[in-house]
Amino acid sequence: MRASGARGQGTNGANGANGAKGAKVTKRVKGRESRKARRERAGVVYELLVEEYPDATCALTHRNPYELAVATILSAQCTDERVNMVTPELFRQWPEPEDLAGARQEELEEVIRSTGFFRNKAANLIGMATAVVRHHGGEIPRSMTDLKKLPGIGRKTANVVLGNAFGVDEGIVVDTHVRRLSRRLGFTREENPEKVEKDLVDLFPPERWTMLAHLLIWHGRAVCKARTPRCEVCVLSRLCPSSSV
């Protein structure tokens, strides 16, 4: 899953890190950083990103938990923009879990074909909807344990649904952007998403977990790109141990 339409483009650059909040931590990390210092730096990073992307939110278009669960399953190895192009027709044909549970897989595959891995996704969507109807009265469950039991839903998808559909900060969504930025910022050395999440949970208070993922995703798309990070215009450049400026 990848964010779209990031408002800020990092045009404030390093100047933002020299402002009132950025002034709290202005020296680039060198050598070993204490846990307390890393938490302080993480707090400043969060505040600067909130200023840079005040409109950051989930990029998947949805109106309810069911639609978000479907969209998130479709977003695996697919852009959010593409998913948002596909879901209107999907929800027109199968507006509720009961409808999707009864869908013909071949027909669903045709609707979602452009998202990639469409056969597996179609099977997971029908399986998810069937389980929701059979075991949860047609309502998307509100717990990590119950969500992870549904076909096609792992911890990342469950975090997306809980945080954005129910306002429950159970954990932090770790996608490719969140993992990349967390490593560049020195918040983790891990590659495994669940281990990255564990390190981030230790640095940020629960009430920031859902928004943190949005902020890192938006910044990853706009500035801290995988191949060519724009360090020269990055609002976090003075706080980032990986910055080239």
Shape: elongated
Give the structural class. Answer: mainly alpha
Helix tally? Answer: 11
The ordered string of helix (H) and strand (E) elements is HHHHHHHHHHH
The total of beta strands comes to 0
* Count of the separate structural domains: 2
Rg over C-alpha atoms, rounded to the nearest angstrom:
19 Å
User: Percent range for helical residues?
Assistant: 40-55%
Largest sheet: none
* Low-confidence runs: 2-23
The CATH H-level homologous superfamily of the largest domain: Helix-hairpin-Helix base-excision DNA repair enzymes (C-terminal)
Beta-strand percent range: under 5%
Within the CATH hierarchy, at the fold level, what is the topology of the largest domain? Endonuclease Iii, domain 2
List keywords for this structure.
245 residues, disordered N terminus, Endonuclease III, domain 1, Endonuclease Iii, domain 2
Structural summary, described in words:
By secondary structure, the protein is mainly α. The protein folds into 2 domains: 13-56 and 174-239, Endonuclease Iii, domain 2; 65-165, Hypothetical protein, domain 2 (Endonuclease III, domain 1), CATH 1.10.340.30. It is built from 11 helices and no strands. The chain has helices at 35-52, 65-74, 80-93, 97-101, 105-112, 118-136, 144-148, 155-165, 176-184, 193-203, 209-222. Helix 5 packs across helix 6 (118-136). It is elongated. Mean pLDDT is 91; it is low at 2-23.
